[in-house]
Amino acid sequence: MSLSSVKGSSKCTGGVDTDLGNKCSKIAFGWAQKTFCNRKGRTGLPVISGGGSFCNIMSFGALRIGMTSDGIGTKVELAERTGNYSSLGFDLVAMVADDLAANGVEPVNLSNILDVDFLDSEIVDELMKGLCEAAEFSGMAVTGGEIAELGKRIDGYGKRMHFNWCATALGILPEDREPITGNEVVAGDSVIALKSRGFRSNGFSAIRNIMREKFGDDWHNRIFKDKRSWGEVLQTPALIYSPLIMEIIRAGIPVHGIAHITGGGIPDNLGRILKVNKLGADLENIFSPLDFMLEIQSLGGVEEIAAYKMWNMGNGMLVIVPSEKVEQTLDIIAKTDYLAQKAGKIIDRPEILINSKGASPRLLSYEKTGK
Fold first, then answer.
1. pLDDT, average across residues 135-140
2. What is the pTM of this model?
3. What is the CATH number of the domain that holds 218?
């Protein structure tokens, strides 16, 4: 296989510039960090300042609470095109619950904000029904939220209600457990991949641009080879991994790191953990992308190295454990409905190698890792 390295801009199909996104996130978090001193010596002091964090954890004496916020972005348009709104709750819960779980925090509560142009009670009912089902799956309680009518500030596809949907989730870190931040990761540790059943709620602007260019504005009604419409295929709800992660932790597995593979793909999300100890990974056996992922990549002519930096490409989470704990961890997962496999190992240099399985398989090298 040939070797591809990341150099220059990470601008991908659809005008998505992941490097610029990372820069803006760094700016925003930099300003947030300046406020941490406001709680010094008081309850609510954030105790994670960066590193391998997907959420932050605040100290309330003996109680430590994790918090994170996210949304489902332009995946909303899939619901507007298909008329199916009930699955989006799984996407919303997955984005926040799995960020908490990635730092070893058990998700417990969620509050959501629904910004709309005008109200449609039927759509609101479907959205909240789906959110209720996703919360039940993840063991969370939805504490409430806000619905805001913003008129022309919100737009979308079709003539029904258009909206943006975001959430903030809280979780608990038990007294006898330290957060999982990547500090414990060492060279020789093993990486376990958890299979995804579709795209997470990121990279959909690029996907929609590809589909529109190939099939026109009615692309969602075109039929994929499995006889489902493209709208239905791409709306596949995200799989929520937090219940499995909590089960692995409670079984006593010494988890050294967890990467939730969302925007930025494997390089950015695994990289934020590995940069803590200036390590890398050799991933020779990740899951292959699903058929529709490969088709999207081919239709858009997306280069292999860009695809793995934009989408999860079939891998929803990566879990890092000591090499001697791989089989025990896989045995725990085998008793569930999740699919997992040993994907590779941690190496002692800051480089992520991926034996890719996309439209043009090759060995990829990402030299600059992490957000």
1. 98
2. 0.93
3. 3.90.650.10
